[in-house]
Structures are given as structure tokens and as C-alpha cells.
Amino acid sequence: MSLATWRRWEADHTAVAAETSQACERVLDVRPLRVAGDDELFERQWANATEITPRQAFALAVVLDLWADELREWIASPEEPLHQVGPFAAFDGRVMFYIGDNRAYAEEARERCAAVAGEIGDGVLPVMRPGRFIDEVLIGAALPRAQDLLADMPEMFEGITARPGNGDDGIGDEDWDVLSDWLDDEAHSADWEVPLGLPSLPLLLEDRHPFTWFDAHRTPPSHSLHVPMQDRLPDPDTI
Fold it and tell me: How buried is 44 (Cβ within 10 angstroms: 0-12 exposed, 13-18 middle, 19+ buried)?
């Protein structure tokens, strides 16, 4: 969560939403945000996966849950710019030109954070089913946060079997690059990481306004960096 929110909670536990206060308490108690018993749930759902480990899945869900709580608090009392809150802090600033401090947009994002977190608990990632562009963007934004969470607070994951990833048994808990590559290969939108700061963002925004990111099953022209720049720009001889 944002530093400002944490400081408010430290100064006065009643100054933040009840859910946020509980999240802070769980962090200090070195407990995951999700309810007791979810360790076994994630172990069961992702134990046989070769592209993501149960601990990685759990970390992604925890980050998304925390963002959902942070957005809920911001919507109720927007005391800081939205670009400093939750997943939006990971977005390229040029995306936020379009969103500003739009509470309705923040609420839609909150709902998607909570929904995707729940899906991960059910053994499903956005890249495994058709859906909304925002869902894949949220996963891209959550990846580095989840990696930091797993590295900085390993006690949160003690209830889930660690996977070393020695190369013979598939991906390990530290193989975040492998997970990112798999997500990139399976993503329904080739542009899912562009809003997080890739140079082709202006081209994306021309075709896909952030207000459309919640639309289902929309596949506009790709502006992924996987497409060579010369193939995306018009032929000078035709201008």
C-alpha cells in the first residue's frame, strides 16, 4: 500500500478503513492477507503447474488483494493522487493523463483486482482464458511486487511447499523471468505490458483508450514491441 496510508495507520489505526487496518496488522504478524486455509488451497491448485509455482501464485493473489483494499480506501477518502495508489503506481504516467483521479475507474480496477485474485485461488490466470485487457495489465503490474513480497517476507509462505527450480522439475519460486516469459507467450493481448512503460505506449493509446480496457474480448491492432518498429510505422513513400 502507499506510504501515506501506512503512516496514517501507524498514527491512528481508526484513520483508515477497517480492511486496510486488518491488512496492516496481518503484515506485522507476518501473515498473508488471505484467510487461513488458503495455503492448502494454493498448494492444491498449482502443485502440478509447470509454468508457475504455488508460492508465486499466492504472492500474486496477495498483491492483488492488497491493491483492492487500498483502492477501496482511496475511493472512500481520496487524500492522495490516484497515480500513487495500488496498481496505478506501476502504470506509465501517460496512462494516468487519461484516468486522472476518476473514482469510477478506480472502482472498476478494484473489482478486477479482487476478481483476478479470486481466480488465481481457483487455479486460473487471465492468460488462461479470454477476458479483459485490464486483467493482464494488472498481472504485469503485480509481478515485480509479488517477487519482492516473496523475497522480503518468506514467512508468509511457510505453509506452501517451496520449489527450488533446479531445472529438472520445472519452474522454481525464484524463476520470475520464466513466469513472465510464459505469461507473455500465453497472453491474449500482445500489448499487456505496454501500459507499464514500454516505448510503444503512444501507439497503443491511440487505438485503445484506458476506458476500453474493461471491455471483454476486444482485440485491437497490436503495438507490442515484439513487432519491429518499421513494421508499425507507415511507409514514407505512401504519405
Answer: exposed
C-alpha span between 18 and 226 (Å, rounded): 44
Q: Which residue carries 509447470 as its cell?
A: 50
Identify the bridge partners of residue 2 per DSSP, sorted by sequence position.
Answer: none
Distance between CA atoms of residues 132 and 99, nearest Å: 17
Q: How far is CA 39 from CA 29, 59, 79, 157, in A?
A: 16, 11, 34, 8
- Rounded Cα distance between 57 and 54, Å, is 5
Question: Could you read off the pLDDT of 25-62 as tens digits, one per residue?
Answer: 766 654 444 444 577 888 889 988 889 999 999 999 99
Q: What is the Cα–Cα distance from 90 to 155, expressed in whole angstroms?
A: 25
Instruction: Note if the pTM is more than 0.85.
Output: no
Tell me 176's DSSP state. H
Residue 132 is classified by DSSP as B
Q: What is the largest CA-CA distance in the chain?
A: 65
Q: Contact 99/210 with Cβ under 8 angstroms? A: yes
Residue type present at position 138: L
Between CA 22 and CA 72 the distance in angstroms is 13
